[in-house]
Amino acid sequence: MEDTVTRQHAHPNTVFHCLYGFYCLGYSRVDLAIIYNKAVRTIGNWINTRQKMTTNAWANYFEILVKVPGML
User: Do 47 and 40 meet the contact criterion of CB atoms below 8 Å apart?
Assistant: First the structure.
């Protein structure tokens, strides 16, 4: 059962909270990998993807999260 849970794609809400921890709270990639039970490389991929997004794309992504009930 644990393999099923840890080997699936992360929910967008999880990625958002992880990025919040990195950018706003100052957690390291290693700390976040432990907290979210993901590989450090996965956390790095999330951060790299965010850094490649334009400000407008990030705003649109955040707006979608806010509009969907239960996402934030």
Answer: no
- Alpha carbon distance 31, 37 (integer Å): 10
Q: Tell me how far apart the alpha carbons of residues 60 and 37 are, in angstroms, rounded to a whole number.
A: 27
**Whole-model pTM?**
0.70
Q: What is the mean pLDDT of residues 22-43?
A: 96
Residue 72 belongs to some domain of the structure: no
Using alpha carbons, list the distances in angstroms from residue 69 to 9, 20, 21, 36, 50.
Answer: 20, 19, 22, 22, 23
Distance CA(54)–CA(57), nearest Å, equals 5
Boundaries of domain holding 50: 10-67
